[in-house]
Amino acid sequence: MARGRRSNNPKTNGATLGFEAILWAAADKLRNNMDAAEYKHVVLGLIFLKYISDAFEERHTQLQKEVDQGADPEDPDEYRADNIFWVPKEARWSFLQANAKQASIGKLVDDAMLAIERDNRSLKGVLPKDYARPALDKQRLGELIDLIAGIGLGDAENRSKDILGRVYEYFLGQFASAEGKKGGQFYTPRCVVQVLVEMLAPYKGRIFDPCCGSGGMFVQSEKFVQAHGGHIGDISIYGQESNPTTWKLAKMNLAIRGIDNNLGPEHGDSFHRDLHKDLRADYILANPPFNSSDWGGERLREDARWKFGVPPVGNANFAWVQHFIYHLAPAGIAGFVLANGSMSSNQSGEGEIRRAILEADLVDCMVALPGQLFYSTQIPACLWFLARDRKNGRFRDRRGETLFIDTRKMGVLIDRVHRELTAEEIAKIAETYHAWRGDLGAGNYTDVPGFCKSAKVEEMRKNGYVLTPGRYVGAEAQEDDGEPFEEKMQRLTAKLAEQFDKSAGLKADICANLKQLGYIICDKG
Q1: What are the CA-CA distances from residue 262 to residues 168, 215, 250, 288, 414 (Å)?
Q2: CA gap 422, 417 in Å, rounded
Q3: Residue 217: how many CA atoms within 13 Å on its side-chain side?
Q4: Are 338 and 353 in contact (CB under 8 A)?
Q5: CB within 8 A of 41, min separation 6: which ones?
Q6: Which ranges carry the N6 adenine-specific DNA methyltransferase N-terminal domain (predicted)?
Q7: Same domain, yes or no, for 160 and 197?
Q8: Higher pLDDT among residues 493 and 173, named by residue
Q9: Three-state secondary-structure class, residue 432
Q10: CATH number, domain at 129?
């Protein structure tokens, strides 16, 4: 077979600013007229294949140098012992790139995916295998393989910099943006995930996301643990996802980062087929679908999870809330995203469910988010934080209190329709919560008008159990300009009188001009 032309692009080492954007622009150019939802699996599957092949080849080279010491470069166990996937010869990137210009490249990629799944049980049924389909332009597929070949993903230096993770995460975000509403089903904006993770601070324990999308909550949790000097083995990952293709994205996303996980043997609906029924998690992080009306609630009217009231068939918001509570450990904490309506709605018994949850002393913190954060919806959103035991020794006794934080004025526009919270804003939100709940070394908490308020349960009762932060934090304090009131009023009234005089003069000029044209309107009684 003719050998494919190698890319002339030097391999990116991750130091180049914005290399993810450059790579995305090139890959998107090759998309042509293919739908983003379809192209996503083409690109991410190849990136995954390139990563595991790079890691394999590096270990293969090491083993070749150790043959005299009994090493066998073709023994799969030599790789598995180091948490590296075994890649058979027909699936190695060098073989695929050498054949990238062949008409059969689609079938060769499919065969490579099948071979990897065959030899690595944890990837069984996970990888995309439809590259041979007639609708996929094979010339563009070959060009895409050459493009991805130009970036080193799986060697030791780039693994340490999380190059693959950066590329994969960036591409997930770009595909979510390109897909619009559909994209939000598999991707939660990174800044929103960071707020949840930074506030919950999951140093160790069981982390659960029953609607895990592509696994972003788990990835950020891992990054949090690493950033604070912990060990990945200190957290255990549990998840569930109802969409089969999104479940595969999550499995790939975690596999390339070496994150052990239990996402169930396959995809499954959390309401009707709970794959972790006996799990009681230390931390729950989630972004369930907003206001879902087709969740099959009519078949679950007697479910044991509805301790605080049966959720309405037409809206799954409080079905999700009670599902989270059901899965919390005795000292567990949950942080999740919901539509703003969940804080105030009284429709179909939702107000009574919210009242029961509040009276059970579970609501720790409520955060109002800025608009335009999500790719999938323009519906305003909020964050809920629930804690099973608010008097335990980890933090101060917070019984009968709830912290309200209003971040609606935060964030910066990254394009015409999307906003992001900055790192400084995320830190401010998390530090406020930590100071309020009494984290060691977090400093003292004080209410800040317009931003945060610690409210007693009596105040929430007076407000009809409405949990909208804006109702509690009040207006932002205005700085005193130092000008005495009497002097300011004299200055402003003098200015107003001057403007009235100008207005009268303008009116007279207009009336005179109109009169010359035969229109007399100013002299009428």
Answers
A1: 21, 12, 11, 19, 35
A2: 16
A3: 33
A4: no
A5: 128, 130, 245
A6: 20-147
A7: no
A8: 493
A9: helix
A10: 1.20.1260.30
